[in-house]
Design a protein that fits this description.
With 100 residues, this protein is α/β, with parallel strands linked by helices. It contains 4 helices and 4 strands; from the N terminus they run E-H-E-H-E-E-H-H. The protein has helices at 18-33, 50-53, 78-82, 87-98; strands at residues 7-13, 40-46, 59-62, 74-76. The protein has a 4-stranded parallel sheet with strand order 2-1-3-4, covered by helices on one side. Helix 1 (18-33) links the parallel strand 1 and strand 2 (40-46). 27% of the residues are buried. The mean pLDDT is 94.
Length: 100
Amino acid sequence: MANGKKKRIMFACGSGICTSTAVRKKVEAMLDENGFKGQYEITQFKISECPAQSVNYDFLVATTMAPNGLKCPYVNGIPYLTGRGTDVPNKAILELMAAE
């Protein structure tokens, strides 16, 4: 918590339930292992809800393409589903967590 506030993270997939839940669990474990336990709040959405909600969040992790009109940074969550290349979104997420 660089500024004393919890980071607000959006997770999204087509329905807001299935793949975003799987990705959320992996990201939460990675964040906790990297010293961010208790420093974030997560809300899951349908990807169609994200542009309108994004002004209230620090970043989005999604298993779909970034939606038009998004007002926060986007992180591609597909590598968490495939199990390959997770170093790229992990690095992006850790940088976003450390940012003011």
